[in-house]
């Protein structure tokens, strides 16, 4: 089993080249983040598989690297699976439940072992209608990895982030991902267009038997043509044609009915593609220095309150 792309050696290389220190110890890749005015660091390890962690060398590594704690952010174990109790037992023996999650705790996973007819039958009725409508109106989805296609993708992605007021990555950040993962053909850019005008574009990452959908954007122009619905469906079919086992939609809300959730809008959109809505187990912290760990969490909580008040 490959594990999650965020725990891959290539992702670690990307973070390192982008300027974040990365350490590998105990079958875990973690990044180091400086705690201001302390000379200490906080470790961050997203999507870890707790069942493969070797805690003895990991703890030593954290001590050697002056880390106060290591945040296991949303471990890659789905609630309700046979791995849940095993993973939770491991984490409880060595860690404490974290007061925060950085990554989305929900997700949609599309099982690509199903036939195309089965996948189609699980689409929301309105989504199926929108997909057929887009096709009927002449919207086409194409694959293009050129610089021009990437520039257009980023234009739509950043414009969507600004329009919908969510955090989006810099062009330099995604460009570095493209540079490193593109070497082994792990980057796929799909675009939905009509008469040469691109209306939506998705940036996909291939790793192991999974195709991930981390970034996407769309234009407000010709919004009624439902290009985003079509590109999502074509991305799923693309993943199936290229023999991936899972289409991972990267993140979603835990409660799909909570309109106040920051992930509500795109979760509602993703839900209509018929994937399985999953919720991951709690995040945990491996604490090395309890005093500084508690002080850091208190300061971090205050920081987020201030940031929310300024929005």
TrEMBL record:
GO MF terms held by the record: aminoacyltransferase activity
Pfam assignment, any one: FemAB
Any GO BP annotation: regulation of cell shape
Source superkingdom: Bacteria
Ranges annotated as spanning the membrane: none
InterPro entries in the cross-refs: Acyl_CoA_acyltransferase (IPR016181), FEMABX (IPR003447), PG_Glycine_Bridge_Synth (IPR050644)
Family according to the record: Belongs to the FemABX family.
Protein known as: BioF2-like acetyltransferase domain-containing protein
